[in-house]
Amino acid sequence: MNAEAMLKTLEEHHRTIMAGLDVIRHHCSQQSPSSCELAKAREELTAASLARSRFVSEQVVPALLRDAADDLRTQLSELLYATAAKRMLSNCHVKTWTATSIEGDWSGYCDAARKIWPMMEDLIDRECRVLVTRLKQLQTG
């Protein structure tokens, strides 16, 4: 896959995740959970996040490492570490907040979700600074 295709794919992953976050935010703005719809939205967001993580670690990072200078290698290593840390926290969140626990403590779930969202957004921002910037440079040159 060339840099242009990777860039388009990564940007689509980012759009999908941000749209999924918006859906969860909308649910959390409600007085009570819409359990079936929320479960579907959470499942879709989890799948989108996992697909993005896999794409980054299996396609983008290896492609960028081929000719990477030491500073980029460090940034890529730190990005992979941040991705793994986010994945662990997200997995814990999903395991803790089951359909039953969400029904039992809606406001608690929403508070916990609000703590996860910035972490997801920060990782996307970081990917834009490191990966998107580098992929754009490869396109032009």
Structure overview:
- With 141 residues, this protein is an all-alpha fold.
- Helix content is 89%, strand content 0%.
- The protein has helices spanning 3-28, 35-65, 70-96, 99-104, 106-140.
- The model has no long low-confidence stretch (mean pLDDT 94).
Question: How are the SSEs placed, and which strands pair?
Answer:
Blueprint: H1 3-28, H2 35-65, H3 70-96, H4 99-104, H5 106-140
Helix pairs in contact: 1-2, 1-5, 2-3, 3-5
Shape: elongated
Major pleated sheet: none
User: In percent, how much strand structure appears in the residues?
Assistant: under 5%
- Computed over alpha carbons, the radius of gyration is 17 Å
What's the order of the H and E elements?
HHHHH
What is the straight-line distance between the termini? 16 Å
Q: Percent range for helical residues?
A: over 70%
What multimeric state do the chains show?
single chain
pLDDT < 50 runs, ≥5 residues: none
What structural class do the secondary elements suggest? Answer: mainly alpha
Mean pLDDT: 94
- Total strands: the figure is 0
Number of H/I helices: 5
